[in-house]
Amino acid sequence: MSLSYIIESIISGLLLGGIYALLSVGFGLTWGTMKVLNISHAVFAVLGAFVAYWMFVKAGIDPLISLPLLATLLFLVGAVVYRLVIRPVQKAKDVIMASMVATFGVAIVVENAMSFFWRPDPRILKPPYAGSSIFIGDMAISQGPLIGFIMAVSAITLLYLFLHHTYIGKGVQATWQNPMGAALVGINPGRVSLITFALSIASAGLAGVAMAMIYAFYPSVQSVWTMFVFLVTIVGGVGSVIGTGLAGLLIGFIIGLCAAFLPFVWVNVLLFALLLAILLFKPEGLFGA
Amino acid sequence: MKTRKYILVLLAMFVLFAFPIVKPPLFFLTLCFSVFMFVGLTESWNLLGGYTGYVSLGHIAFFSTGAYTTAVCMNRLGLSPFVTAPLGGIFSAILAALVGYPVLRLKGAYFTISSLLLAVVMQLIFMNWDFVGSSTGLWYKLLPVSIEMNRLLFYEAMLILATITTLVVRYVERSKFGAGLVAIREDEDVAKTMGINTPWLKMKAFILGAFLAGTVGGIYGYYMSYVHPEVTFSMNTSLLILLMSFFGGCRTWSGPLIGAVVLSLANQLIVTFIGAEISRILYGLLLVIVIMFMPDGVIQYAREAFAREKG
User: Would you call A105 and B243 a contact, using CB atoms and an 8 Å cutoff?
Assistant: First the structure.
């Protein structure tokens, strides 16, 4: 086992980690700001993957070009889900618990609707550039993960800029820090929740496209993706964009390192054991406030 | 009034036990089998999930442990399913004890996430573990009796198991143990302050529920004559258990019973005549509706609506 093999493995792990971070960032945001634990988060990533896949296969639109359209579409889907499910659930006594159970139902509905309409076969999004690799010395870095990583970093950066440098984003943050105070200075909490939730779904959809360029996807893969979401969010701490990003990279690093020595499935099992350990000993996350 | 109720229940039980005598078509026995199975699963889930409010999405891990115990024992040792089912229950209980010790210290969402994690990780392990057939699953021979006899035997076995489970849960609900569990749901910290040994109570409920679910799984594993990680660990089963319990009302022993009977009948009929995906979509929707509008279950909801009508 040469050193360059290990480095190659770590680099592809880091690329993957960036994508996991994008997959999780919205989940942490809704949990942190709205106290809504959205188990159906990853199912919308799979939905995003399907939308990009169909636009590519049926209409020949490159997944990178269809991204803005896809983000808009999933933003709207998120807004609808918010109106129909999340807002009524927010009135419950125990919002976290109620939202968790209700979105579990949503996840099952969307998953089965997808396998009903599009069959549960595994598919992969393969635009021509995703298959080839860039060579640095004797290391090969495949372009699929690289493009996904760039997508993820740009999307997370945009989200960060939105939260910290726009009026609405600051409103979201204010509501997060003190809902009562924010309402008193005229920030509409319902509007803020709607935007947060819809944005979170849109970011999940983008991550789904990145994931689909690397892994085969099918409706029931959402449960595994959900696990990655949990993993990154728990490691990074709830409700911190930077924390989520760092956690994604850390997990990617661990994946890359382990993948050099272990078969891929056992890496997953190891990761989940790690998640359990973190839950038990440091439930507020490694980078949490 | 009370004796009349008991006589009615006994009569109903007698009819259920005697039902196979009239030689109904196999479809009905299969249908009833799945109803009993869900009664067993939902009631055993309710011990922890309903009374203490520790919502577990990992109950299928125990169910599958039971199913796989039967599968492996049948396949390698040729043991009778009536031996392996309690054995599966014991293995599930051991698993619950090992997992429960750390996991039950987590609260609310963190507990639910870890329980979901347990199911997904176990599925991943079973998918890649050659000893249990990895992703091809395990097939095995049925007992050397006719198919009718087979169905009849397991109809009765599952009926007995569902009855025992329901009685156990009913007994627990009316005992001091059950009162302690409800105290945990109302306010765990206060319960602890009042001198209730909350970790031990939760542990007991978790292990007992796992034992019952494992036994149900053991019978199911034989009945299906094959096990596959995608099937036994299916997330949809978790959804069904949760939905049945919430639908009927998870604070009583009778709620999950009613929920399981009504919904698993409906589920089987929809799956048979319309399609599995449609039925799951309907179930997901129903769960959302139940959580939004009737968090105490449909029976309580109807009772309140009726009371409002009257008063």
Answer: yes
Q: Which of B45, B59, B110, B113 should we substitute to test contact with A (largest number of A Cβ atoms within 10 Å)?
A: B113
**Which chain A residues have any C-beta within 8 angstroms of a chain B C-beta?**
37, 39, 85, 88-89, 92, 94, 96-98, 100-102, 104-109, 111-113, 115-116, 220, 223-224, 226-227, 230, 234, 263, 265-266, 268-269, 272-273, 275-276, 279-280, 283
What value of ipTM does the predicted structure carry?
0.83
- Which residues of chain A have a CB within 8 Å of the CB of B117? 227, 230, 272, 275-276
Contact B288 A106 (CB under 8 A): yes
Size of interface A-B (CB pairs under 8 A): 115
Rounded to 5°, angle at Cα B232 from B209 and B201: 15
For residue A263, list chain B residues with Cβ-Cβ distance below 8 A. 128
User: From first to last of its 289 residues, what are the pLDDT tens digits of chain A?
Assistant: 678 888 888 898 999 999 999 999 999 889 888 888 999 999 999 999 999 999 999 888 888 888 999 999 999 999 999 999 999 888 888 888 889 889 989 999 999 999 889 988 888 888 877 777 888 777 778 888 899 999 999 999 999 999 889 988 888 888 878 888 888 888 888 888 899 999 999 999 999 999 998 888 999 888 889 888 988 988 888 878 888 899 999 999 988 888 888 877 788 788 878 887 887 777 766 665 4
